[in-house]
Amino acid sequence: MIGLGSNLGERDKNIRTALEKMKEKGIELLRVSSVLETEPYGYTDQPKFLNAVCLVETNLTPDQLLDVLLEIEKEMGRVRERKWGPRIIDLDIIFYEDLVLESERLIVPHPDMHNRWFVLAPLAEICPDYVHPKLKKTVRELLQELTRRR
Predict the structure, then answer these.
(1) 85 vs 13, which has greater pLDDT?
(2) Which of 80, 92, 105, 116 is catalytic?
(3) How do the domains of the chain map onto residue ranges?
(4) Domain 2-111 classification at class level
(5) Active site residue 45
(6) Which residue, among 72, 93, 70, has the nearest Cα to 16 in the 3D structure?
(7) What is the pLDDT of residues 89-112, one digit of tens each?
């Protein structure tokens, strides 16, 4: 599952373009959530985001998938100037099947996804019963817990 976010330029077009580029690079889109407008996370002095998630199928390894997503970000003009800062596009691997992976380059499941409404809400739309492989809770349960904490 891939998370998508954009808060610069034509945000909706950026999300659509990223999805198209994923398809062009052989990543099959099985389901795509609705696009939600959300408040910035972490660094809050920036424009609102549009966020979505998609369920994908690929023959790529997690590292290869990360390389493709970073390539798409670069092709679309993403510049990394500040952690959690504004961006044309952000593509994150949220889950990769039920894999648990921690390397210097990549942590799967995404280490902070359970604290991010903008990830959990669209995930709950397309796969509410998916069980987080480390936390052993469904996406629906994680969203309910986060909603109670907010």
Answers:
(1) 13
(2) 92
(3) 2-111
(4) alpha beta
(5) no
(6) 72
(7) 999 999 999 999 999 999 999 999
